[in-house]
Design a protein that fits this description.
The complex is a heterodimer. Chain A is built from 2 helices and 9 strands. By secondary structure, chain A is mainly beta. In chain A, strands 1, 2, 3, 4, 5, 6, 7, 8 and 9 form a 9-stranded antiparallel beta sheet that branches. In chain A, strand 5 and strand 6 form a beta hairpin. Chain B is built from 2 helices and 3 strands, in the order E-E-E-H-H. Helices cover about 30% and strands about 20% of the residues of chain B. Classes of the chains: A mainly beta, B alpha+beta.
Chain lengths: ~140, ~90
């Protein structure tokens, strides 16, 4: 799995993101080198930005399969080119923030195409408390 | 919307490579089988709606960069516990 070293890069989401299907161009940036957070900022709509996290920098418990459909859509030829970030919902404040583990954002770092993938694995939480992940106490 | 009545064990085609089977009907629950090419994703629509909803909530949040730093400091144990070294030691730990 690719370390995300592409801060400032533009990512193209052919289908947008669920709920934002018309927004196809985003820029990813890392505000702190030492922390696993990334901003995913829409280039089409300035007010739309997501706080995201690289799950693999904070947990070893998270795993899923990238389907053939996704690999085809993103033209993934080598899984080593894949980067994963998960959207953080901090609408109730950072202390109550949750991480969407059910629908990770998958990025092919080779061609900078991305998509948010809805996983059918029902054991993955739509709202995993961020604090649990940071403290390594997620269920 | 096209509406079709089907009985148990009947099926329909969508195009020439997606086949939907009615496997079982029991009370209010219909068990459906989907045969589709591997490059077609199939998922429950309420799951997709929940993710749209989650994204809309997540996107409206204005994030303060210094709050993020504080969150990390407050939740990154510097000490080593039974799980081994902290995965993300805060900068001042090192």
């Amino acid at each position: 799995m690719k370390q995300i070293e592409f801060s400032g890069k533009k990512i193209f989401f052919e289908r947008g993101l669920p709920g934002f299907e018309d927004l196809k161009h985003f820029t990813i940036s890392r505000p702190f080198e030492e922390y696993p957070f990334f901003y995913l900022q829409s280039n089409d709509e300035e007010v739309v930005a997501f706080l995201t996290i690289n799950p693999f920098e904070i947990t070893k418990e998270y795993e899923f399969e990238i389907s053939d459909a996704v690999q085809e859509t993103l033209e993934i030829t080598d899984l080593a080119d894949v980067a994963v970030i998960n959207i953080v919902n901090a609408s109730n404040g950072l202390n109550e923030a949750t991480v969407n583990l059910q629908a990770p954002v998958i990025i092919n770092t080779k061609n900078q195409k991305g998509m948010q993938v809805v996983l059918n694995n029902q054991s993955l939480n739509l709202k995993e408390p961020l604090k649990n992940m940071l403290q390594g106490t997620e269920g | 919307m096209l509406v079709l009545a089907r009985k148990k064990n009947e099926s329909i085609y969508i195009g020439d490579n997606i086949k939907i089977f009615i496997l079982d009907i029991s009370g209010e629950t219909v068990k459906i089988g989907v045969e589709a090419p591997r490059n077609i994703d199939v998922y429950r629509s309420e799951v997709f709606r929940a993710i749209q909803q989650e994204n809309r909530q997540a996107a409206t949040t204005k994030m303060n960069v210094s709050d993020l730093a504080n969150l990390m400091k407050n939740n990154s144990p510097c000490h080593t516990d039974e799980r081994g070294p902290a995965l993300i030691p805060s900068p001042e730990c090192s």
